[in-house]
Write a structure and sequence with these properties.
alpha/beta
Length: 490
């Protein structure tokens, strides 16, 4: 029998079937679909009903192919949510986290609740699109949708509710809201009240691996399937990706590389120190009672948005060609801080990158290859900066860096990262979140006895590509220049 994992990213979704066979994990993608945000007036939305349609279509495809599905799990990006009315219906399409309605909301919330106090309770990185600030923005605007809402469900919770009719929140995704106590692992009522939201809006929280319920009778009838159980997996896609890290030691550093880059380590306790607050690190919930001490880095969103701008201008090139052009471009010409606010949601990403270089007195990258080279080298150097801070906060030293996710297909970025961090990079698997989703379902079914055994199975099943560091002297000088240009402290 197989499990069916839905892995929803910020630009696409996929349905993956997974099963154990001879001690190896076999996965097969049976459906892939776009996940494009929709701009309507001043607002940017997720097309949540289209995503639900694709999930149902995938279940039908599995049935038509004769796949015996024993359970279903869904993971996705964090922070965004849908609002459910008292009649059980979705009130409105969920806002996209890059919508600008949260502009300025962090300062408003800090004035009411105190930045240090929020961090001491939640241990969460401050990002303007966190659920806390989205809700505060709705409350400040006297949102009719919020006023009519009976329950808030994060994106995987919402889709799981559509399938089962059961409303539950899942812990790893709930931990990204900045409303969940890091130590208590429960909603912090003072924070919820402080942003003007009723505690009753938030659902009961279950741990990853919990079977929430079977497909609802109406869904069974529509899709011509039986009462397949739906599991609350590690529903934040980064939490699922960390489950799939093929580490042989309990002490490891990881980078989940995709639209976002998330770099950190796995711990058995949160780090809530003043230093963690100053460096704006996050402590998100993980599988099995663990914590993911990590930092969000802008990631390959920068390249994706460059490509979108060039495509719109009529200069369309596949990603592979852009990476080839970057490889041929002059190295170490210009750097950016990938996490500068100007890159969060610009109208023209290449123009914004060139403006940053011009304003910092650097050569302005003229070609598309030079722009992509600038982005990839800057990401690699920001990874070193983040990795070294992770070590200091965790009080650990890491021999190398595990990279999982679609970003490992960019071999140039993997090589640059090994050079920048001055230690090996172990890349794989590419479908980290989907594989972690599968693993949690297999763990819930008792097919795999432990997370450590699951990670060993991943390593044996998919292998790991190793990138060794090179040109240490050049990259040491590059890092010093990167710090000087960006104003970051070593």
């Amino acid at each position: 029998m197989s499990v069916l994992a839905f892995d929803l990213g910020a630009s696409s979704g996929r349905a993956v079937v997974g099963r154990l066979e001879g001690g190896r994990l076999i996965i097969e993608e049976i459906h892939r679909f776009p996940n494009d945000p929709v701009q309507v007036g001043d607002r940017l939305y997720w097309d949540i009903l289209r995503l639900y349609h694709e999930i149902k279509h995938s279940i039908v495809k599995a049935r038509q192919r004769g796949i015996d599905v024993r359970s279903i799990g869904i993971d996705s990006w964090a922070v965004d949510f849908g609002l459910i009315g008292a009649n059980g219906e979705l009130i409105a399409n969920p806002y996209h986290y890059r919508d600008r309605h949260t502009d300025g909301m962090m300062d408003d919330v800090f004035a009411k609740l105190g930045k240090a106090s929020i961090y001491a309770k939640t241990g969460l990185q401050f990002l303007q699109f966190n659920t806390m600030y989205q809700l505060a923005a709705l409350a400040k605007a006297d949102s009719p949708a919020l006023a009519a809402a009976d329950k808030l469900l994060m994106i995987p919770d919402l889709l799981r509710y559509f399938l089962t009719g059961v409303m539950k929140g899942e812990y790893t995704n709930a931990s990204t809201t900045q409303l969940l106590g890091a130590v208590e692992r429960a909603w912090d009522e003072a924070l919820v009240d402080g942003i003007g939201v009723a505690r009753s809006l938030l659902p009961d929280v279950v741990q990853p691996g919990t079977v929430v319920g079977p497909l609802a009778p109406r869904v069974q009838e529509e899709l011509i399937v039986g009462p397949i159980p739906v599991v609350a997996v590690a529903e934040h896609d980064t939490a699922s990706a960390v489950v799939a890290v093929p580490a042989l030691s309990p002490d490891f550093a990881y980078l989940s590389s995709g639209t976002w880059s998330l770099l950190g380590t796995e711990l058995d306790r949160p780090v809530l120190t003043e230093q963690a607050l100053e460096w704006n690190f996050t402590n998100e919930g993980g599988y099995g009672g663990t914590y993911r001490l990590l930092k969000n880095i802008m990631g390959l969103w920068l390249v994706q948005e460059c490509k979108r701008a060039w495509d719109k201008a009529g200069d369309a090139k596949p990603f592979a060609e852009l990476v080839t052009q970057a490889e041929e471009a002059a190295p170490h010409a210009s750097y950016i801080d990938p996490d500068d606010d100007r890159f969060l949601s610009p109208a023209d990403m290449p123009a914004e990158i060139r403006a940053y270089c011009r304003e910092t007195g650097q050569p302005v990258p003229a070609s598309s290859g030079a722009v992509v080279r600038c982005v990839l080298e800057s990401l690699a150097l920001k990874y070193r900066w983040t990795l070294e801070r992770t070590e200091r906060l965790a009080e650990k030293t890491f021999a190398g860096l595990h990279i999982v996710g679609g970003g490992i297909q960019n071999e140039l970025l993997c090589r640059l990262t090994a050079n920048a961090i001055r230690r090996p990079v172990w890349a794989g698997p590419a479908e980290g979140s989907a594989i972690g989703n599968v693993l949690v379902q297999l763990l819930a079914a008792g097919d795999i006895p432990s997370l450590a055994e699951g990670r060993r199975i991943v390593r044996d099943s998919f292998g790991v590509a190793t990138y060794e560091p090179e040109d240490a002297e050049t990259w040491a000088a590059a890092y010093d220049r990167f710090l000087e240009i960006t104003g970051l402290q070593a």
